[in-house]
């Protein structure tokens, strides 16, 4: 049978049912998957050293002759153990192998082998334990750079490498995304050469070029996908809106405060977009506490006054419930029907909300990604607001916007407003929000005081408790964040939070202590948050569910336990929960970590309140993967490309612009690239409906 890229893996020689099942566990089903399953690392076995020059702890290769072999023994736990002595012409070394009888049998006295492993200076001189051994055959050549693949139970690295090797001829069938002139211009390899180079690189130079080639096309495809997304929503007329008769002034009069200059500018941008005839696609970016909600509320008011529905999507139930409360307070007086689509509703209540959404009985709907489920339909969804966008995927946002057109292709396009608090470096923001226009809230509401931040260790425990009590005496409230405890590989935030809360209850009595955690039912969580908001609870113990958006102006203390467990941007978000009212506020980072690195990291928090500065430090120290947090659902995945590679981002962005306006639509050689961009969009969309 002729193999193709779509052939299932069991059609490859040497892949039986068990092995195919193991590959399936890694998400690999056909030959194409396997070819694009790249090593996670490489061993540089070409780094051959002389025994005499090796250092204690050095990882390297040694080419050795076996001098002597002791008879196989057994450890007390029943493992076989074989000791060999070997040497090159600079010195001798002892080799120990545990539980590899088949291997040690094959190692013969007087013969030469290449051993790869860690040299340790032991009691009897240099030694290596369980090194990789490869026979040096006359005229044969051993590869210098050896791939290390992600593995799963039932698959060894060698099995993966052997299977990849068998599939490799089909690399020639992979579609060439980058036409030759482009590859030449950027010094990139043809796709087949890049794939071969990533699996079995003949040299570090080729490996680097192969990696760059794949990273380049991934990032370019992603950039083009973003342009597709934007073009898709711009192709059709949007819900038309008008300033005249909208009564915007009445809304601003009803606000309990005057907008800051930055808020006013953002609102002006938004009204301009919504009256332009084209769909608004705007990001409002502002540090925690800059007042994004009021800006969103203005947009929502405007949309409803123009005869449309508006939806606001938040990443957590807690935040959705809070937005629901504040939007109701602001908009119900105008006769708007505001509802919450929450996970705590009964089936019948949920059906009721769905029905009223469909029939137009709701003006403003607030919820989590429940808003984009397939059974939810809208009537004239004029505006979709996504709060804390970095928590969602680029495409989830589009899913909400496309709700109106998915039912009726002729329906006008929904306006999009995205709110993000995570201040991120500009290049990164261009990637994540490259399809959006941006308004920045670079001004805080007046009267905000800097949150004083302290880094302390366990020896301060009693002093901190006394301090918090004083704040409670003064009528303030406090947040306490404790990190997840991992038990048997499972994180149990319920246990962490409830045990902690029980411990501190007597400390703060008669003040009341409440807790929220991930195991609670949404209704229960809402009730606790509402009680804390209303001041009925004085201390709130939680894991990071309060991290985004929660607004309780009377809270003046944020105590973070085991602060070293959190990322800087996350700590900045947590700190943003206090200092939102008129009271002097404090953030206390408790950490017993002795590590110099984590202390200097945490110290940054005590030195600045500027979200951008913190984001840059965070990005530099941890890399973008951690920066976004593995929990976030909208994480964008690449095989080789990385958000830390700013040069690559800049280069592909400029190229995407050039191609988009020119050759992409006219030149047939670019058709595969365009198709790849569309496929990427679809794949992301599919992933999101699964979430
Ligand atoms: P974020 O940008 O973090 O979402 P919020 O919208 O939650 O911030 O606003 C933070 C707090 O500031 C809220 O209590 C809000 O009522 C208040 N606020 C917003 N805008 C102003 C303003 N112009 N003047 C005074 N207070 C404001
Ligand atoms: Mg907010």
Features:
alpha/beta, 7-stranded parallel β-sheet, 24 helices, 41% helix, globular, binds adenosine-5'-diphosphate, binds magnesium ion
Number of helices: 24
**Any idea what the radius of gyration is?**
30 Å
Helix content: 40-55%
Average residue pLDDT: 86
Major sheet characteristics: 9 strands, mixed
Q: Which spans of ≥5 residues are poorly predicted at pLDDT below 50?
A: 624-634
Ligands bound, unique? adenosine-5'-diphosphate, magnesium ion
How many DSSP-defined strands? 26
> Separation of termini?
38 Å
Walkthrough of the structure:
Strand 23 (513-516), helix 18 and strand 24 form a beta-alpha-beta unit. With 691 residues, the chain is α/β, with parallel strands linked by helices. It has 24 helices and 26 strands. Strands 2, 3, 4, 5, 6, 7, 8, 9 and 10 form a nine-stranded mixed β-sheet that branches. Strands 14-15-13-16-17-12-18 form a seven-stranded parallel β-sheet, sandwiched between helices. The two termini are 38 Å apart. Residues 292-293, 387, 549 line the site of magnesium ion.
Describe the SSE topology.
Elements: H1 17-25, H2 31-35, E1 41-44, E2 48-49, E3 59-69, E4 73-74, E5 80-88, E6 91-98, H3 101-106, E7 112-118, E8 120-122, E9 125-129, E10 132-135, E11 145-148, H4 157-167, H5 180-186, H6 191-199, H7 204-234, H8 248-254, H9 261-274, E12 281-286, H10 292-305, E13 309-313, H11 317-331, E14 338-341, H12 347-359, E15 364-367, E16 381-386, H13 394-401, H14 403-407, E17 415-420, H15 426-432, E18 437-441, E19 452-456, H16 461-473, E20 477-481, E21 486-487, E22 490-491, H17 493-508, E23 513-516, H18 522-533, E24 539-542, E25 555-560, H19 568-575, E26 586-590, H20 596-607, H21 611-628, H22 646-661, H23 663-666, H24 671-690
Parallel strand pairs: 2-3, 6-9, 12-17, 12-18, 13-15, 13-16, 14-15, 16-17, 19-26, 20-24, 20-25, 23-24, 25-26
Antiparallel strand pairs: 1-11, 3-5, 3-7, 4-5, 5-6, 7-10, 8-9, 21-22
Helix pairs in contact: 6-7, 7-22, 7-24, 9-10, 11-18, 13-24
This protein binds adenosine-5'-diphosphate and magnesium ion.
